[in-house]
Automatic annotation (TrEMBL):
Family of the protein in this entry: Belongs to the NAD(P)H dehydrogenase (quinone) family.
Gene name of the record: NQO2
Role according to the record: The enzyme apparently serves as a quinone reductase in connection with conjugation reactions of hydroquinones involved in detoxification pathways as well as in biosynthetic processes such as the vitamin K-dependent gamma-carboxylation of glutamate residues in prothrombin synthesis.
Protein name: Ribosyldihydronicotinamide dehydrogenase [quinone]
Organism: Lepidothrix coronata (blue-crowned manakin)
One of the record's GO molecular function terms: metal ion binding
Cellular component annotations (GO), alphabetically ordered: cytosol
Amino acid sequence: MAGKKVLIVYAHQEPKSFNGSLLKIAVEELTKQGCSVTVSDLYAMQFEPRATRNDIVGRLHNSEAFNYGVETWEAYKRGGLSKDLVEEQKKVQEADLLIFQFPLFWFSMPAILKGWMDRVLVQGFAYDLSKSYDGGLLQDKLSLFSFTTGGNKEMYSNGGIGGDIRYVLWPMQHGIMHFCGVKVLEPHICYAPENVSEEKRKEMLTGWTQRLKTLWKEEPINCSPEWYFK
């Protein structure tokens, strides 16, 4: 939709990968719609995933015992976060939609993307102790997790060896996005693209293109435990 701002946080090492193709499609299709699209390509940026004292510029609130949560909260309030965090927070603040594009690693997101969550979504910016979930500080935004898996759809079904894929989504969608007040769209999952035919991969890419065309008309999921564990 024209005028909308989109931030795509991309976590894959190889531009020619299937994830890279999904990223390219999203940038092209959303730009074609008149959206302003920004990409944080975490590997290309050599984004630092470790949450350390380096994230705080200047004095510490308590130099005797380092507490990352407290220190980043205090630093955010006084404008003392490191430059890379301030830049990412600005992108988040300006975005109407956050898309996370990545391959599923060990039933979770890659470490570099988890590090982005840990370091960017600090207290005071994304949430406060009295302002979380529906009252989170980022409640005017939408999010979408788009990812690939190694296993097929049957493996991630209710009766499959991996269990329902929604169990995997609980900490990412509910524990992070919903906690920060962000509304969550249905995830876009491409199952086992490395283990299917070229024709099937093309179908997956076409399906992503088609979904993006009507994305702004979608309603967010019901952010409740029932959606994940019914």
